[in-house]
Write a structure and sequence with these properties.
PX Domain, 4 domains, five-stranded mixed sheet, Nucleotidyltransferase, domain 5
């Protein structure tokens, strides 16, 4: 039976490669949104994690609460089983922009299949935030949409909950409370059945690919670039989440990506190359045909018409535009040779059949057998990842400690590295986006900035006190 799994996570920070999940909450419903079951998993904070103060004063999780949880490896196995239940449609609020990538990296660094919940055994995933954005644009009367203190619309889930008086069992930013709020929101949106079904279809890669490619097929030699309207929460409040766009084709290297340039900017007014939106099939960014142009503001339509006229009738500008198109279609994400093992999900090949056999053997083994297996493995990425699994989750076991203590100490020296170290730039841990892993000194600086610049309640102040002690202990 097809079911929806509404879920949310709380984490130690925003870096999907280097932070960790602390709390996972989920409610399974049928397709009519009737509750079937609930799951809640708390995960202990790993000894090698440098927590981000901003995350902790938001979700307010404490060390005492986290100490009751399971280790990351065991938590990851439980979460993987839940999201991979056959015929599961995983749904979160901004999940494709955050939670889903966190899951993938969590699975990867624990030698668990990172993608099967997206396609295997009838499983798929949906993001409620783009769906809410679609309703906000084309059917705004469906709920009361919140306005911030400065008079701007917002799609923040906690403010939608407050504005519509949705009931939840805990405060906002508690994972289960956010799941409950998401379901309440979905119950309002599903009342417009046709829009709801259309919205769900947007996350089917094959059907969306056919729909978008049809737009490209309707172009001619005179106008080879199709006009469309895109809805995305990333456009922000100034454009009320909608923009006219021109499609410039599919990426040559990433065939699941179509490329779009906004037409409500003065794209020919500077020498800078226009920015291209990279839209993956079945993911964030809703493409609508030209007939939805009436949803745009007059200012957007005027700029759009001006840019289309230049592209179609000014040969010199068209040549510049064509050059930009070729650049974006040829673009490849740069490889980061120094990227740390934890962040190599996208830079590495899929696990081979031989590697998968070793991984299956590792998961089936007892802890003592895992230690022996890692000891006997030839140097390879499975051995390297398995070694980290052991020292992150089971270092208090004597046999694990004897095997991996040197690896652990070497790694922790990098985790603790000071930014004042003259060799910091060569020692720092770097991710696949050339992002840097947070070190204790940076976390303390962030903590002090928050203490000085933000108004905190007594609970948040206490959180920062013990957090400072914890970070210094690292």
């Amino acid at each position: 039976m097809r079911t929806f799994l509404f879920y949310d996570i709380e984490t130690t920070g925003l870096n999907t490669s280097f932070d960790q999940i602390l709390s996972f909450a989920a409610i399974r419903t049928d397709t009519k949104l009737n509750e079937i079951a609930r799951d809640s998993i708390t995960i202990k904070i790993r000894a090698d994690i440098v927590p981000s103060p901003g995350a902790f004063i938001t979700h307010r999780l404490t060390l005492d609460a986290l100490a009751q949880g399971v280790c990351e490896y065991e938590g990851a196995l439980k979460i993987h089983k839940i999201v991979n239940t056959p015929e599961t449609v995983s749904i979160g609020y901004n999940s494709l922009g955050f939670d889903d990538e966190f899951l993938r990296f969590t699975f990867y660094r624990n030698l668990i299949e990172p993608y099967t919940h997206q396609y295997s055994n009838g499983c798929s995933r949906i993001d409620l935030l783009p769906i809410a954005t679609l309703y906000r644009v084309i059917r705004p009367q469906i709920i009361r949409w919140p306005i911030t203190d400065d008079g701007k619309p917002t799609l923040k889930l906690e403010l939608i909950r407050k504005e519509n008086q949705f009931m939840a069992s805990a405060p906002s930013h508690n994972a289960m409370a956010d799941v409950e709020t998401s379901i309440e929101l979905a119950k309002h949106l599903i009342k417009e059945e046709k829009i709801w079904q259309f919205a769900l279809s947007l996350f089917d890669k094959n059907s969306e690919k056919l729909r978008v490619d049809k737009l490209f097929s309707q172009t001619s030699n005179n106008t080879p670039y199709p006009f469309a309207v895109m809805i995305s929460h990333k456009f922000g409040t100034d454009s009320t989440y909608i923009a006219p766009v021109i499609g410039i084709g599919r990426s040559y290297h990433y065939l699941n990506q179509t490329l779009w340039i906004r037409l409500d900017n003065d794209i020919f007014s500077s020498s800078e190359m226009p920015f291209a939106i990279r839209k993956k099939d079945g993911e964030i960014g809703i493409i609508l045909p030209p007939r939805f142009k009436d949803l745009l503001s007059k200012e957007q339509i005027d700029l759009c018409d001006k840019n289309l006229s230049i592209i179609n009738h000014n040969q010199e500008s068209r040549a510049i535009f064509d050059k930009a198109v070729e650049y974006h279609r040829q673009f490849k994400y740069p490889l980061v040779p120094e990227a740390d093992l934890d962040s190599l999900l996208y830079q590495s090949d899929f696990f081979s059949r031989l590697e998968k056999n070793e991984i299956e053997r590792f998961h089936r083994a007892s802890l003592d057998q895992k230690v022996q297996m890692v000891k006997n493995l030839n140097p390879c990425r499975v051995k390297d990842i398995a070694t980290r699994i052991l020292f992150r989750n089971y270092l208090n076991n004597n046999s694990v400690f004897d095997l991996v203590s040197k690896d652990y100490e070497t790694y922790m020296e990098l985790v603790r590295c000071s930014i004042d170290d003259p060799d910091f730039n060569t020692k720092k841990i770097v991710g696949f986006r050339q992002d840097e892993r947070l070190v204790p000194q940076q976390a303390i600086e962030k903590l002090k900035t928050i203490s000085n610049e933000r108004i905190l309640d007594s609970e948040q102040q206490e959180i920062l006190k013990w957090l400072e002690k914890y970070i210094l202990s690292i």
